[in-house]
Amino acid sequence: MNKLANKITQAIIAILIVGLSITNPNSHKYKTYAADKISRELKDNTCTQLSENPNSHLITSCQILVNSVKPQIEITITQNTQHTNWIIFSIYKTRLQVNSLIPEYHFTTIGIFDFFLTYHIEEI
Questions:
Q1: What's the pTM?
Q2: pLDDT in tens, 47-58
Q3: Phi-psi region of 45 (alpha: psi -120 to 50; beta: other; left: phi over 0)
């Protein structure tokens, strides 16, 4: 009975490892995730701070601008991200600095089960 339990345990572990490796999201998915997250943050927080009126033309213009530069955000993320693939999960470390007037940010994100979780954000 012990041998059967060991074989079942080994099979379950092998299936889990294969399942995790199949659902380990790739760099392209991370780039899209990170650009979406940064764009949402800019539109929801930065743009809305431009005016006290939530229907302000200034806020709308800012949000349109953020949407228009999203391809450049993706390029910047790709150029400033270090990807470590551990087969069953990946770790992405992104360093963003637009210019010297805006603080530099470091993001650390884990990708697992075709899902991303940014667990560390640091303003430098």
A1: 0.79
A2: 888 777 777 788
A3: alpha
Among 120, 112, 116, 115, which residue's Cα sits nearest to residue 87? Answer: 112
Taking the CA atoms of 70, 76, 77 and 79 in sequence, report the sign of the dihedral they define: positive
- Closest listed residue to residue 96, CA positions, set 69, 123, 115, 63: 123
CA 31 to chain centre: 7
Task: Cite the DSSP H helix spans in 23-114.
Answer: 27-41, 57-68, 70-79
What whole-number distance in Å separates Cα of residue 54 and Cα of residue 10?
A: 57
3-state secondary structure of 33: helix
